[in-house]
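Example with several molecule types.
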Amino acid sequence: MRDVAIVAAGMTPFGELWHASLRDLCVEAAMEALKNAKTDQVDALFVGNMSGGQFVGQEHLGPLFADQLGMSGVAAMRVESACASGGTALRAAFAEIASGLSETALVVGVEKMTDATDVTEILATAADQENEVYHGITFPGLYALIARAHMQAYGTTEEDLSWVSVKNHKQGALNPKAQFRREVTVEEVMSSSMVSDPLRLLHCSPVSDGAAAVLLCPLKEAKKYTDRPVKILASGLATDSMALADRRELASLDAVERSARKAYKMAGMGPQNMQVAEVHDCFAIAEICCVEALGLVEKGKAGSAARTGYTALGGCIPVNTSGGLKSKGHPVGATGVAQAIEIFEQLREEAGERQVEGARIGLTQNMGGSGASSVVHIFQKV
Amino acid sequence: MPSPRYWREVPSRYRLEAARCLGCGKVAFPARRVCPHCRGERWENTALSQQGKIITATVVRVAPAEFTMEAPYAVAVVETPEGARLMAQVADCDPATVQPGMEVSLEFRLLRQEGHGGILCYGHKAVPAG
Amino acid sequence: MAGIVGYGAFVPRKRIKTEEIARQWGKNPEEIRKGLLLQEKSVPGLDEDTITISVAAGRSALKRAGIDPARVGALYIGSESHPYAVKPSGTIVAEALGIGPEVHVADFEFACKAGTEAMFVALGLVESGRVEYAMGIGADTSQGAPNDALEYSASAGGAAFLFGNKDLLVDVLETYSVTTDTPDFWRREGEFYPRHGGRFTGEPAYFKHVLMATRGLLKKANLKTADFRFAVFHMPNGKFPLAAGKELGFTQKQMETGWLVSTMGNTYSGSSPTGLAAILDVAEPNDRILLTSFGSGAGSDSFALRATDLLPQRRGRAPTVRSMLDGPRRYLTYGEYASFREKIILKD
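Resulting structure tokens for the full complex:
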């Protein structure tokens, strides 16, 4: 296998982008990445997208976007793994370059959500339709069930959940691309409307439009495109039972743990080596469970990690310096790629006010459904 | 739900039909081809008891369109005496009182309808026991 | 001899009080409570209909009988609120109960007497030897138009009776039926609410048929009112059954156990069958029980029954009607009731 690097990135702002269509978003992020790499050619295009078919009635995104980018003829495909579609597309492109199948690969994660009328129901298609959704459960509901189990097992509180939102909004306020560039207080979070007990509105990531793109090539070719490439050290992808009822334990996310174990093994590293991490905080409880499953915080202890500043910018292991899904926004298919861009910028020391000083190793973790799939990538400054 | 899809699921929806793996003894609900625990492929048919215990629960306040008239409602993961777990709405009680450990009976209910003219879809609900 | 080998009932757990409906329409609740003897009524949830009520009652009947459901050769459901206009409720109820596919199924409609009609036919098939076991169910989730007198009574519930030839809980001593063409109450195809003839529903309809059927039964069975420990009549409101019973010579004591209407409301096809289930919950061996239904249109079925030694041993296998009427329940506001009963126009 060849070493692989990210050499360029491009990203739209995340938010309610009323003027932009699905294809507009893709083209904006992809063209920015290509321009930054000063190239207009790639061998392969990987699209991370959860549900163009349901959100805007458009499938077959590989050729559509290749065409829109003026690249008709190029190898192009869409990768889907619900909210982990972006991270999984990145992994597919990583494998494409590492294997020698292509010399350059462009990964675009994109989702246009605000054109849809029933976003809740579309997102719910990532859960088990026959055994969960049939009974009227929603995504906030599924994570609320996990939250209740975590509270019962470890004494995690509503206030612990709220501090995750406070931390991520504070960090997102520093991110020019974030959907919500404002801080929130614990009181605001805890008095926001209840969505699915114990999760309140401000414990939930928003509905967003956005796209994010990265360009990959073999590490030894990277200097053709940039003087500061970032190496992809490892990629781990794993799954768990689809339905929550079939999980080994409700307060743990086994797919996350498995994907991390694979990535750490491949990188020859452990959680103690990570200096900055972007994790999948679609709901506040998800960040708590994920940092535990990633080994960044001891199992059962992550409830207090945001409050004490352990996972905040300036803390032992800064998590979601971008603002996370909560504050930056969560255009589902784009999220995994946007996470990689945050780490790319951190390791290139381009993160401005959000910069983690001296960061050389970073991690991203992108999750699908209620934790049925998870993909972890580890990156290193070259 | 298109009627053929609904119709295929009738045994598990109406009668809680499940399968016990002859390899490891675990019960899968609904029945499936390969055991998620031991990968066994030999099964015996069984039906879940119409009762169970709540493992975890929430109250859905922002509901999908089909269920907006019923919100807020409790949804729980319920474990039956056979060790199978399933998701169910917990009805006929104050949703805020639904807690882990609560004993429930599993009753037959109308769950969804395909608009005014479409088929009616039935299934199970949990109701506090006693 | 054929008889009842299992029975079960179901009453939804939601209620609305007479005061709450009266308040909505500016009526005096005291007049309704005194005039119709109605305190409150059951209300079905959005997840309940004639089919779910039938399944709940049918499961209890099978538990009390303790037989393999596959041996049930006929299933009849009487209701005026079958959820489908075309597709029998019985198809779904049979599947849910584990009955069939070797089973004869039909839905019946005869206003409020469709339940006893189903029982009558089920009994006949068992008696004839054509099937080993047959189930007859009466269940309804009937609607009364807003601000109509019926709104205080139209409620939801039902009861299931399984008939067989051995291990009887109840002997059927005699039956009797009457039918005439009497347009006292009706609902045309496609209409949401029924219409009725006001006071015409009384003397020429309810009383004429209930009295005719009951007297016919007593004569045919050669029994007197005093031979019965319990009697139950169709309960469109609180007053009618008590007045009919009194005219026939029954005492308050004979009628009080089955007279559920003041807190259950009128469960239409489920009305007198649920009253019978409540009687079977307490009857002692050899107690005689009289049941007379009434269905608008109009007709009555009358049954003379006798409890066996087995009844007290089996009834503990399923919940009693009293436990459902007096058990956990939630009182609705008129607004909640209107939304549960789909009286509010919604976006589709």
